[in-house]
Amino acid sequence: MLDACAWAASTSREGDWFDDRAADLAAAFFPMYLRHTKGRFVGHPFALQPWQISAVRAIFGCKRADGTRRFRLVYLEVARKNGKTQLAAGIGLYTLFCDGEAAAEVYSVATDTDQAAICFNEAVRMRSRAPQLRDRSQAFKRALVVPKTASSWKVLSADAGNKDGLNAHCVIYDEFHAMRDRLLFEVMHTSMGNRTQPLEIITTTAGIDRHSIWWETREHAIAVRDGRVDDYELLPLIFAADQDDDIASPSTWAKANPNLGVTIPAEYLAKEAAKAKQLPRYENAFKRLHLNIPTEQSVRWLPMEDWDAAAARREDLDGRPCFAGLDLSSTTDISALALVFPDDAGGYDLLMRYWMPEETVERAERRDHVPYRDWARRGLVTLTPGNVIDYELIRAEITGIVGLGQSASLPGDGRALVERFDIRELAIDRWNATQMSTWLMGDGVAVKAFGQGFASMSSPSKLLEKLVLGRALRHGDCPVLRWMAANVASMTDPAENIKPAKDKSTGRIDGIVAAIMGLGLASAHDASAGHVGLISLT
Fold it and tell me: Which listed site, 62, 233, 245, 506, has its alpha carbon 20 to 30 Å from 74?
């Protein structure tokens, strides 16, 4: 665990000195005036933990030769539930009430107002429990004012309008990994130019966006911590496990959780680690939030060892009931059809079809780094003439009909899919599919519009995950679908609903989306129901 004071001493410059009195006063402020406002410690004095004592003492005790504070920027990255917001709130209150700064301006800053208000609201609650602070200040919805010194603490966000004229003394950036607006950070930083010892506090957990100001700042802070870069004014406080650490080990938890056993129980982390072992989609959330390990923006959802261990697909699928999912891409990308065959034991067979424009294959191979042309030669992907997909050829393969009831020349044995299989229903994304839906319904296929939101996708997505983990999805070891399964990332909402995240996946996932839609229909219907797939046109 990083000792802030020891690190500061090892990087000091000639003339620097340590002000024990200033350090003692700042550290004593917390238990003397502040009380916890939430959880099992509510009402108890804010007794700083050893790592917090070291941080506060380093921030306020490390001085330059001229007597001003050395550190102007503190980067604190620590796992959730370790009290970083409460610590930042206490530091903000100290700079507001006790820093000796005339007309001090303290700001809570975040991407949106609600996030920015979290630290501020914690400070207001602490102030309300401290008569010595409460009697000297006035609290408003988005401001805390100390009339005697003309000082204030206000909430700001990226949408707060014009920020010209600010003269910040202390700025607290909460959950910095979510900061979208580089301009906001730069405006606040430059607003401190007239202060003699300004202080910026960045608090965050690890994030996912490696093209953000958070990642840039984090990399810089690590380089400073490790001595590769000299930044005299930055105090890097990073508590994180390593990528290869065992997520179930208490020693791993301790690296990222300096409050382990105090504000975050070991039992809780043990339970969450076990959940991460069982649910691959949760593993990255656990790593990022509880181990403070940055995860890629594109995170694999499905465990490929379980995918590869699935049983072989049944060969006798002809004539069997199935449910289809059709994911139509833009006309220049790959489109996918999944046929999902339920069995009586709770397993599913999966048969896939893919289409893409012939003239775009070479460019697509360079972009996606997969052998589309070889897959096409093996009959795994159908290349349609031209530089856009001919949707009528997809229609023809499904129903055997082209245009005004004309027949088409079909691959394989020449039979349309509705002739080979008992397709009960076909799910299709509402987007970009109006014409195809009209065609297929006119051809006699029972088409169901299938939304791509959590409401429609979550249940079959969880079923897909369960089937893969249980090795009960018999996919025939199709290399196209395996590539897409390795690409797919999932996203989760606050209610624990999940669905594929196309924008976060590492490559094409059309086949997985089609399979999920087919599973959605299959799981909602009894496979032994009456035939409703192809309706007679006579």
Answer: 245
């965050």: which residue's tokens?
204
Q: Counting every residue, how long is the chain?
A: 538
| 406 three-state secondary structure | strand
**Max CA distance (Å), the chain:** 97
* Residues 479, 36: Cα–Cα separation, whole Å: 56
Rounded-to-integer distance, Cα 534 and Cα 425, Å: 9
Q: Which helix (H) or strand (E) holds 356?
A: strand 348-357
Residue 72 CA: distances (Å) to CA of 60, 62, 107 = 10, 11, 15
- Which overall architecture, per CATH, does domain 304-524 show? 2-Layer Sandwich (3.30)
Q: Report the share of the chain in percent with pLDDT over 90.
A: 68
pTM of the complete model: 0.67
Q: Residue 527 above 90 pLDDT? A: no
Centroid of chain to Cα 138:
38
**How do residues 245-291 score in pLDDT, each as one tens digit?**
999 999 999 999 999 999 999 999 999 999 888 877 788 889 999 99
Mean predicted confidence (pLDDT) in 454-472:
92
Q: What is the DSSP string of 2-70?
A: --HHHHHHHT--TT-EE-HHHHHHHHHHHHHH-B--SGGGTTSB----HHHHHHHHHHHHEE-TTSSBS
Q: Which CATH number fits domain 4-239: 3.40.190.10, 2.40.30.60, 3.90.25.10, 3.40.50.300?
A: 3.40.50.300
How sure is the predictor about 396, in pLDDT bands with cuts at 50, 70 and 90?
very high
List the structure tokens of 1: 């665990």
Q: Letter for the amino acid at 298?
A: S
Q: What is the pLDDT of residue 531?
A: 38
| Residue spans per domain, the chain | 4-239, 304-524
CA angle 48–54–58, rounded 5-degree value: 125
Tell me the C-alpha distance between 302 and 462, whole Å. Answer: 11
CB 444 within 8 A of CB 534: yes
- Label residue 532 by pLDDT band (50, 70, 90): very low
Structure tokens at 533: 């797939």
Helix axes 454-469, 280-290, angle to 10 degrees: 100
Of residues 294, 91, 96, 323, the one with CA closest to residue 206: 294
CB atoms under 10 Å from CB of 478, counted, come to 18
User: Using CA atoms, how far apart are residues 249 and 251, in angstroms rounded to an integer?
Assistant: 5
Is residue 318 a contact partner of residue 423, using CB atoms and an 8 Å limit? no
* SS3 at position 340: strand
Under a CB-based contact definition with an 8 Å cutoff, are residues 233 and 58 in contact?
Answer: no
Q: Beta strand 17-18 with 62-63: parallel, antiparallel or unpaired?
A: antiparallel
Please provide residue 200's backbone torsions phi and psi, each rounded to the nearest 5 degrees.
-115, 130
Compute the distance between CA of residue 371 and CA of residue 391 in angstroms, rounded to an integer. 23
Beta bridge partners of 23: none
For residue 496, which of 520, 465, 450 has the smallest C-alpha distance? 465
